[in-house]
Amino acid sequence: MKRNYYLVSLIMLTFFVISFLTNVIGPLIPDMINGFHLSLTLVALLPFAFFIAYGVMSIPSGMLIEKYKEKKIMIAGFSVAFAGSLLLAAFPNYLTAVLSLFLIGCGMAMLQVVINPLLRTSGGEEHYAFNSVLAQLIFGLASFISPLVYASLVKNLKGDQQHGFIFTLRSLVPSDLPWISLYWVFTIICLVMILIILFSRFPKVELSQDEKAGALQTHILLFKNPVVVLYFLAIFCYVGTEQGVANWISQFLSTYHGLDPQTTGAQAVAYFWGLMTAGGVVGLLLLKVMDSRKVLIIFTVLALICLSLALFETAKISLVAFTLVGFFASVMYPIIFSLALNSVSEHHGSFSGILVTGIIGGAVVPLIIGWLGDHLGLRSGMFVLYLTMGYILSIGFWAKPIVTNKTVDLFRKKNPEENR
Known about the structure:
Distance between the termini: 40 Å
CATH class: Mainly Alpha
Number of strands: 0
Largest sheet: none
Shape: globular
Order of helices and strands: HHHHHHHHHHHHHHHHHH
CATH architecture: Up-down Bundle
Structural class: mainly alpha
Number of domains: 1
């Protein structure tokens, strides 16, 4: 099929926007605590509301796509996110924040389910692997940029600029809640994306029987397979780990080391995501020469070491170690996902929907950390991450995929017979 470069670019832009809206919650947590006077448990309900939306919307979205097709679902996804962003921007309080993040999460879940098969069709099946990696790099780039945009907005709102966008924002945003400005930015971004998609032409996406979401009975049948449950828990633990670190870095550095969450904390989260992108590139190279299970074991052990340094060492070491957790966590999601799909022989579309539903780990684990943090202290609450990472480490030992990743043996001696 001829490649549709415009649509591939639109999908890449969508990946950027999803990440930009998703991974800025962590840096905002200290401001949310202070602005709305919240306990750690109550503030943890905010990312919970966002990520639980994935559990609610992922499988239904796959079924809706078959009826209404990709363009309408993408417009619906951005419309729901637009409504959520505008709600919090216009009426900033804790209850609207919970509802807002749930709505934004629903919109992002709808988009995630649409864009992967659309990327395969518009970019060509033979280029899908390359385009998927490129999409992940763009996703990581947006995660790096969004905390820096937040820090810049807050800094400029405190200035005395008398014209332009910042001046307009200052009139819309409560002076004691400067971070709300980010949700006005999100509102504008979602509106622009709706308009772009409205005027875009979409190709017809033909899914094979194995790629389709499948009926509810298929999902129930899959859940009776112990391998499916194990990999669902693996995705649950991975996203729980990722968000459990990213959401609490800034608050941890503020609580235990007195570092400013609006500058140093936000930058630490940005570099966490930035190094996750860099680690993904290194991981891709290692997967060409090593079994993916060995790569998973090595990177998870190193992530555990960095987590320990982050929790127990000095401010300077903690700052660096937290960002390095991102670097070593980078390979976990793609390796777990590929091991999962390569461990079953059929119903891959339905299985993918179940795996994506495992993203609710990003809702549950940070909430548990917050609840324990209120009772035992945030450092003790973050001990939960040893359990989630421990489970991820175990995958490297028990995984038995039907197909293993293809590697190149760099040290294989060439057989003289091959030269004849």
